[in-house]
Specification:
L-amino acid transmembrane transporter activity, globular, single chain, 465 residues, disordered N terminus, AA_transpt_TM, 16 helices, Hydantoin permease, transmembrane helix, two-stranded antiparallel sheet
Length: 465
């Protein structure tokens, strides 16, 4: 299975300068292993700088995930919660690093399904390709649900929640239809600043407010945070997979590195991304849960008082919209490239090009809208996505990627480093499988419980309470 070895050393992907660039114009790469010939009038798919790459990486992660981390700490307890967050952050950082290494060795790779095809043939491509699409479509659904919660909070439930979900779908579709990541990176910049500001407002608010928004007002409030929780197996697994969701931007990193001007700077962008993301997750998770205890909300923006809730959601809405925009863009772009790859329609402004692109973004937004309306409890949807598809995208394939490229090196002598990396890769694969099975079970149990408690499909009820 892993007998093939890449013999050639890794070399930087030097960009080929076009006549336009040589004369000081816009960067273009005449030919790319994924996108083929890039024409003068068509979209320039290779135009993302390393700083834009770091921002896109951060925006695929900081957003919906961070809003659920304090609630996950409430289930697990603050100490196990921190340990789980650090462990998952470490594994996914290595997984993200492997994406860059694998791309430089196999420059024709565009998505995780290409990895599946190289390792397991057509079944691998179908399983990982299908999981990739479902992962981002479900993530887009959770983004629409988050936007509807924000609109309900800001407007004091000014309209039916299903209407707000539809508004979120239309807005995200409009921005998600921008064709290249180079042109969409400004959305990520605005969204990142927006969501960071909103969460910091909440962190300050819960420290200043007398009590959390949902805490009882007829007695003295003392935070009831737990150092170590005592959850059921189902609840614990769902909480852990909520943290997986917060870190599982990994499948997007294949698409991002494919559109970089210079992929050799990928690791630089990754270090910036993971350092900021991990520090932010830890600080926000600890501070918000410490002050709110069992009365922490999910999304966390509703944890402080009514005024802080409105203000924080007001700042967060652009960030939630930016996340949903990216979540719609990725699966549509993936299918678009798979359909048109090898033809002139991929990089030329033909009728087929535009009909295919807008048809795919519209279909993605529609399915995400249905998902958001069918699973109307934010925390349940996030944990289900993290369990069922997040681990499949961020754990198992990366362990297999290292084994694929390095397994045959053991035939020349099993060094200590080789043995340790084989053990690590096997651990990542097994841990991902365990989390996928256990987390999916726990999430389904919680969703069933939510329906029993009165949550409904296409509900008009206020979901910001």
């Amino acid at each position: 299975m892993f007998e093939e070895k890449q013999e050639e050393p890794i070399e930087p992907m030097e960009p080929v300068l076009s006549q336009t660039e040589q004369t000081g114009g816009i960067y273009e790469c005449p030919h790319d292993e994924v996108f083929g010939e890039i024409t003068e009038g068509g979209p320039n798919y290779r135009n993302v700088g390393w700083l834009g790459t770091a921002v896109l990486m951060m925006k695929t992660q900081i957003g919906l995930g961070v809003l659920s981390i304090p609630a996950a700490f409430d289930v697990l307890g603050i100490v196990p919660g921190i340990l789980c967050l650090v462990a998952i952050g470490t594994i996914t950082t290595w997984s993200n690093y492997m994406v860059g290494v694998f791309k430089l060795r196999h420059r024709e790779v565009y998505g995780v399904d290409d990895v599946g095809h190289m390792i397991c043939g057509l079944p691998g491509r179908l399983v990982l390709g299908g999981s990739f699409i479902l992962w981002w479509v479900f993530s887009a659904g959770s983004g629409m649900l988050g936007i509807s919660i924000g609109l309900n909070a800001v407007s004091s439930h000014g309209a039916c929640t299903s209407v707000f979900v539809a508004v979120a779908a239309i807005a995200a579709l409009s921005l998600g239809s921008i064709q290249t990541l180079g042109r969409i990176s400004w959305v990520a910049w605005i969204g990142l600043v927006s969501i960071l500001t909103a969460v910091l407002i909440v962190a300050v608010g819960v420290g200043v407010e007398d009590r959390p928004a949902d805490a009882p007002i007829d007695k003295v409030w003392v935070s009831d945070y737990k150092v170590i929780g005592n959850p059921s197996f189902a609840s614990a697994m769902a909480a852990v997979c909520t943290i997986v969701f917060a870190y599982a931007g990994t499948p997007a990193f294949f698409s991002i590195v494919s559109e970089m001007r210079e992929p050799r700077y990928y690791t630089r962008a990754l270090i910036i991304c993971q350092s900021i993301v991990s520090a932010f997750y830890l600080s926000i998770g600890i501070v918000v849960y410490y002050y709110c205890g069992s009365y922490v909300s999910s999304p966390a923006l509703g944890s402080a008082g009514p005024l802080v809730k409105k203000v924080s959601y007001g700042f967060a809405l652009p960030g939630l919209l930016a996340s949903t925009t990216i979540f719609i863009h990725f699966p549509a772009k993936y299918i678009f490239i798979r359909i048109l790859q090898g033809s002139r329609h991929l990089s030329a402004n033909t009728m087929t090009h535009w009909l295919s692109w807008f048809g795919l973004t519209s279909a993605t937004a529609l399915i995400a809208f249905i998902i958001a309306s069918a699973i109307p409890v934010f925390n349940d949807l996030v944990s289900l996505i993290g369990a069922l598809m997040g681990t499949m995208m961020a754990f198992q394939p990366m362990g297999c990627m290292w084994l694929y490229d390095n397994w045959s090196a053991g035939e020349n002598g099993k060094t200590v480093k080789w043995n340790l990396m084989v053990a690590w890769s096997a651990f990542v694969i097994l841990a991902g499988t365990f989390l996928m099975i256990g987390g999916t079970y726990g999430s389904i149990v919680n969703i069933i419980s939510s329906y029993s408690g009165g949550s409904g499909v296409f509900s008009c009820a206020d979901n910001s309470d």
